[in-house]
Amino acid sequence: MASSGGSVKELEAKALAMEDQVRCLHTQLKEVERQLTSGESPHLAALKAENSKLEYQIQHLEKSIEAEKNSCRLAPACSRSSGHMTDIVAYLRQVFGAAIARAYPQLQAPSALIAVGKKGVDYQCNSALGLNKELKALGVSANPRQIAESIVKNVPPSDLIEKLDIAGPGFININLKTELVSELLRDVLVHGVRAPNVGTSRRVVIDYSSPNIAKEMHVGHLRSTVIGDCLARIVEYCGHDVLRLNHIGDWGTQFGMLIANLEDKFPNFTEQSPPIGDLQAFYKESKTLFDNDADFKKRAYKNVVLLQGGDPRIRTGWKHICEISRQEFGQIYSRLGIEGLVERGESFYQPLMNDLVADLQKRGLVTEEEGCKVLLLKQQKVPLMLEKSVGGYTYDTSDMAALRHRVHDEKASWLIYVVDSGQGLHFQQIFEGARIAGYSPENCRIEHVSFGLVLGEGKKKLKSRSGDTIKLKELLDEGVERAAEKLKEKEREKVLSPEELAAARDAVAYGCIKYADLC
Fold first, then answer.
1. Are 478 and 509 in contact (CB under 8 A)?
2. Whole-model pTM?
3. Percent helix, percent strand, percent coil in the chain, to nearest 5
4. CB-neighbour burial class of residue 351 (10 A; exposed 0-12, middle 13-18, buried 19+)
5. How does pLDDT run across 374-428, given as a tens digit for each residue?
6. Quick one: which of 375, 339, 157, 377 has its CA closest to 232?
7. Contact predicate 439/409, CB 8 Å
8. Which one-letter DSSP state was computed for residue 3?
9. CA dist 388 → 266, 351, 371, 392, 397 (Å)
10. Using an 8 Å Cβ cutoff, are 126 and 115 in contact?
């Protein structure tokens, strides 16, 4: 690899020359446009063709300029900045991303795929195969190995890369300079593991856990809770401002039947908090009555209307049920070491949905289909359902209102949703709807961190509303029992005090449970 000192100046000069060329082309383009509009030229078709040609050349050169400028910025990128570790993978993505942009400026925002190497290779850039398909779609004929060769030729100067060679059909092997790797290792030994330099700190909102009120947490809630907490800790460690949000299910028709059952079993619930010992059993009992008793169902629906209308008595019953759930959630979170999780339930976003729909209607983005108010999407066949034909909002409306609030009120520039993969299509719709509505600016990063579904018997998805799921508390209890047995087998009670033994038992139990979902 070439040294970075003089090459940077050459690249800067090259970029400036290209900028002059772009300015010249712009001048020519304006002259062509002037002639087109004034009708002075007798060769209109030729001018239009020339116009298109110049526009393409400008776009091509502007992309090349950006790639050259990126190259200029790469030279110091690997410098060991004070207080941070060097992120080698991120740096290599930057290097090879710039190389791809220089080699193929017609590609839109190309990214580099960097993987850890094997058998004497430090890292590998595996972008050529994927780029082959993109380039074919643009009419560029090149096999993956030729693409890899073009990328290598355009790799900018680097103080970290020792050697590049191409293996197989187009894998670029990357070997780092030994002395610089040694320097990085010495830095870790002296200063310990530190966060990489992530640049400007972001306001990050991470949505995770999200159990349903009036239901005990079951094993299906564990994965989102553990992964979300892990992400929040890592992102915060890297220097970002993190808001942990718990989008709990504390609103909906189910509260009508729960409050109807509350009225029957604890008629004085407005004066005294009802002693509901088992929410799981209470929910199942309420659901059975709702399904089999017509009068009970009628009262349940009436309670829903009263709850949404703000009836003080019904709201009191709703608050009692929510508080019982919160206490049980708190016990689970305490055992798992989950801290700083701020509750923002469905009820929080209810007042914001009227304004959301009104704003979309005002800007002509709402369409009526079969009496429903929807937001049509370009990339998805199914539109966002904003309002039902009989009135009332949906999960789409609530999640759109939540996203809008997080970006515009919480001032977040990075949103992370830690939700199972079964909700993938829903979030694709929400994210596209937010872009169409202008609720997610270009500098806002929005991601769905998905994970596999937690399945119950018969490989069916666990549903908290059915009331037939394994309680998370029972899983944690079993983990503690098994950890205690293992410690007893190893006779740890002979060397540890009762307090130390209990701490070791819990650390082993909860650590193993978390690790199982993270590995």
1. no
2. 0.74
3. 60, 10, 30
4. exposed
5. 999 999 889 999 998 877 889 999 999 999 999 999 999 999 999 999 999 999 9
6. 339
7. no
8. -
9. 34, 17, 7, 6, 10
10. yes
